[in-house]
Amino acid sequence: MILIFDIGNTHIVTGVFDNSGKLLLNFRVASSENLTEDQIFSYLKNIADFNNISIKSVNGIAISSVVPNLTTILFFLSRKYFNINPIIVNSSLNLPIQFDVDNPAELGADRLANIVRAHNLYPENSKSVVIDFGTATTFDILQGNCYIGGSILPGIDLSIRALFKNTAKLPKVRFHRINSVIGKNTIEHINAGIYYGSIGQIKEILRKIEEEIGNFNLITTGGLGKIISKELNHKFEYMPDLTLNGILDIYNINKSSD
Ligand SMILES: Nc1ncnc2c1ncn2[C@@H]1O[C@H](COP(=O)(O)OP(=O)(O)O)[C@@H](O)[C@H]1O
Ligand SMILES: CC(C)(COP(=O)(O)O)[C@@H](O)C(=O)NCCC(=O)O
Ligand SMILES: [K+]
Question: Whose CA is nearest to atom 4 of ligand 1?
Answer without folding.
Answer: 223
